[in-house]
Amino acid sequence: MTSAPTRPTSLRQQLARRKPIEQLQAEAARGVDGAPLRRSLGVWHLTMISVGATLGTGILVVLGTAVPLAGPAVWISFVLAGVAALLSALSYAEMAGAVPTSGSSYSYTYATMGEGIAWVCGWCLVLEYAVSVAAVAVGASEYVDETLRVFGLHLPTALAAPPGDGGVVNLPAAVLVLLATAVLLPGARESAWVNTLMVVVKIALLVFFVVVAFTAFRAQNFEPLAPMGAAGVTAAASRLFFSYIGFDAASTAGEEAKDPRRDLPRAIIGSIALITALYILVAIAAIGARAWTSFSSDEASLVRIVVDVTGQPWVALVFSVGAVVAIASVVLTVLYGQTRILLTMARDGLVPKLFGRVSHRTGTPVAGTLVVGVVVTVVAALVPLGELADATSIGTLVAFALVNVSVLVLRRSRPDLERSYRVPLFPVVPVLGTLCCVLLAVFLGAGTWIAFGVWMLVGAALYLAYGRRHSTLR
């Protein structure tokens, strides 16, 4: 008796196919070719990864572009962006405790909404992580230039800006990404300690700025509070949401955490609370010390304020060096997250296996890290900051919205699943988190939406050409 021929899976069926959570966890424990990631990170390391990937980005790099939109009310923009991020962070905390793998929101959507939505989310994460690394690295050149000015030197425009900003190549940005790539290669624990040291430096730097800026605080600088109206405040919040993307980097360490179910939710919620408080405090101090009309997107705003208040050139040196360290921490941790996302997608067959190969010696995806590092280096060297920041924001907002929806779906489909943390006020929090992400995305410019549409079309083509045929669930 002959068996009936197997019918090929239709595209619609494959896009809807979900990956069982138990299979995700088993594959994480087994690794690729018998080489799993090493579990070496505790709650302190995870919190520092989250803070390191976030703190400093919006204040040091994007503040100068947000103030002209919101005026003195830029601190309210930080509050709005922070609330939206916190709502999504609570959903991330629940999913990280229920599905502790390196795939972050990609794995969460694969388990709840199927391969098609998972690919969309994963492709958004590639945009979020890789492009944000490049965007933050681009901002480092401003602070490198400030450091050189103390010694009477100046970074040539040709080597300090990409072609779109009047230069030839952003050399500091490229060097920073290459150095971060080198730090990631030896192992997660080693790079985590380097990141922890840099996080301590950046927190001390921002506290120092607040203390100095408040000595020149003028309440008159907050009048009028919102010269561009509510639309300007919301538009600035959409741009500043880029500053909060780091907390989800902790969830990409799910397979390298010693106790992911317990430690990941703690790290995510704790870090987002700390980051939001510091952002608001620094924004208020900056506006209080300097009229909002003098902020510009083409200068290192905070170091200029510190120098103007103190009148001491050496302060510029200390602050600029500290700012470069702070930016380097963001580059390091977000680059780490990108390699772990691609590792999980490679394990599922949706991207080439190269990204999923883990070195038996270091316990890290060496080949994937090198490839990502080189590609991001090229982007950081050649693409302007403004375009990168907005593109990152829209990819982040889509991914965050999908995580909020994942919580709703998983509570319904797997109410018995072990969860080390549950979102409070369910389902209000994930619903509000989704709506906040959609609202902020709407206020991004038409050019950003067009670029996002092109990015998603490229992703769809790659899925049909490679991912559909190589998917392990097919």
What does this structure look like?
The protein starts with 10 loop residues before the first helix and ends with a helix. The model is unreliable at 1-5 (pLDDT under 50). It has helices spanning 11-16, 21-30, 43-54, 57-70, 74-98, 105-112, 115-150, 157-160, 171-184, 188-214, 229-240, 260-289, 301-310, 313-347, 366-382, 385-413, 428-442, 446-470. The protein is mainly α and 474 residues long.
Quick summary:
This is Amino acid permease. With 474 residues, this protein is mostly helical. The chain contains 18 helices and no strands.
Any key phrases for this structure?
474 residues; mainly alpha; 18 helices; globular; disordered N terminus; transmembrane helix; Amino acid permease; AA/rel_permease1
Radius of gyration: 22 Å
* Terminal-residue CA separation: 26 Å
Q: Give the count of helical stretches.
A: 18
Uncertain runs: 1-5
User: What's the average pLDDT?
Assistant: 84
Tally the beta strands. Answer: 0
- Which percent range describes the beta-strand content? under 5%
| Largest beta-sheet details | none
